Amino acid sequence: MDCFSYRNGELYAEDARVSDIAASAGTPCYVYSQATLEDHYDRLVDAFRPIDPLVCYSVKSCSNLGVLRVLAARGAGMDAVSGGELYRAKAAGVPMSRCVYAGVGKTDREIREAILGGLGLFNCESEEEFENIARIAGELRRETRVALRINPDVDPKTHRYTSTGKKETKFGVDLERARRFFATYGRDPFARLEGLHLHIGSPIYTVDPYREAMTKTAALVDELARDGFAIRSIDLGGGFGADYESAQSPPLREYAEAIIPLAKPLFDRGVRFILEPGRTIVANAGILVLSVLYTKTSGDKRFIICDAGMNALLRPSHYGSFHFIWPVAPGEAMTPARRTLDPKLPGTVAQDVVGPLCETGDFLALDRVLPASIRRGDLLAVFTAGAYGMSMASRYNSSPLPAEVLVSGARAQVVRARESFETLVEHERTPTALDLRRTEVADGASARADAGAIHA
Ligand code: LLP
Predict the structure, then answer these.
(1) pLDDT tens column, 61-111
(2) 239 lines ligand 1 (CB under 6 A)
(3) What CA–CA distances, in Å, run from 316 to 192, 392, 449?
(4) Minimal CA–CA distance to 138: which of 192, 190, 193, 194?
(5) Domain chopping of the chain, boundaries
(6) For ligand 1, atom 23: residue with the closest CA
(7) What secondary structure does DSSP assign to 1-20, as a single string?
(8) Can you give the pTM of this predicted structure?
(9) What are the residue ranges of helices labelled H in 286-352?
(10) Which SS3 state, helix, strand or coil, does residue 335 take?
């Protein structure tokens, strides 16, 4: 479910009119619905209640502090993959003891700060990394908890860029190496190797890969027990689908029903379960609102040129992902019944929705059936954009990052101000030799520059 709906031909985020939000926050802007975030989080907790997991929201999916705070207030822990994400979790008021920290390239500084901060669990990805965590923990004389990330070698049947659980991946270690890993490192006095972690890919639209991964994990837990190593926690990662098109993803209940029968016997033996959902919580809790700058026809193709493209939402051009796009105020006759590739309304025509950047790959949708009436000045909403939207946005072509707005009921609050041109360049420095204000050379250079002006 989500709280973006058309009423009388106009899009609302909860009870706030999206065109009003765009008028005050400007475009491009991301708009998040607090009620949707909370509903998704609660549904997840409910669905998995028999194994009472710690839900560690995956910060990378949408890292805005306002969003993190909403989930933290619900009791969420956080799944981080960098010192920056741990910093955000802390800033959002999440205790470090409820945070897990994965990622194949943790630096010494990040590891040290995480240990000193009282991190809940390192999700360790390699032998060398374990040795480094153990060395740093030993030097600090601080105990820290570590889970080994394993690759159960299942095919999640998703985009190859986001498949992570196959054997040949940079993440984790394969199952055959896991027992050796415990035999080698399982008795370290400071880095306490006590858990298993897996994340097989994202998004995963069938429950079978989870069933297969959980079965293999349970077998490994038994083998490790026979080797004398008790597993205290299992982190099943994230990757549950979201509805990019209407009812595309199985309900959370179905994922839970596949996993729980396999996980419950371990839970009953005292194993603590952790989940790391990102997309399933935040994807449908966010839209991207854009303004149409121009329309044009090249050959037979009609283009809708918006004020942001792949700089604000990279997924369509990077993964070929589908995002439903529709005008914010289409009128009642043009309000679509469902969010699908072809909404089959009269007066629609296939068009490309593109951004302003100087790349042919800068698009949000190709050959998309949209109202033929869309014109300059209209607002468009890109749906299911909450996950991996703003968090993957770039400043390419010196585009200021979009604003972010959090809606609760009828109230809309800016939770990240739009960047200005000044903030775009604030970290850049002029090399001293070229400092135009201070050197004689520069005076000459600027005089020469004037002489070379296009219109002298
Ligand atoms: N845990 C780990 C270790 C992960 O690597 C990820 C996502 C998650 C949890 C959360 O997965 P989720 O529940 O959000 O699917 N940029 C891509 C997705 C990359 C996912 C990276 N890892 C996209 O836009 O689809």
Answers:
(1) 999 999 999 999 999 999 999 999 999 999 999 999 999 999 999 999 999
(2) yes
(3) 42, 12, 41
(4) 190
(5) 4-13+21-27+284-423, 34-282
(6) 388
(7) --SEEEETTEEEETTEEHHH
(8) 0.95
(9) 315-319
(10) coil
Give the end-to-end CA distance of the chain in Å, rounded to a whole number: 61
CATH architecture of 4-13+21-27+284-423: Beta Barrel (2.40)
Phi, psi dihedrals of residue 114, rounded to the nearest 5°: -65, -40
Closest CA to 220 of 251, 190, 195, 193: 195
- Residue among 136, 125, 128, 138 at smallest CA distance from 165: 125
Class of domain 34-282 (CATH, top level):
alpha beta
Mean predicted lDDT score pLDDT of the chain: 94
Ligand 1 binding pocket includes 371 (Cβ within 6 Å): no
Q: Which of 57, 58, 288, 394 to mutate to test the pocket of ligand 1 (most atoms within 8 A of CB)?
A: 58
**pLDDT at residue number 58:** 98
Q: Is 61 in the pocket of ligand 1 (CB under 6 A)?
A: yes
Does residue 150 surpass a pLDDT of 70?
yes
Q: What is the token pair recorded at 32?
A: 């998040």
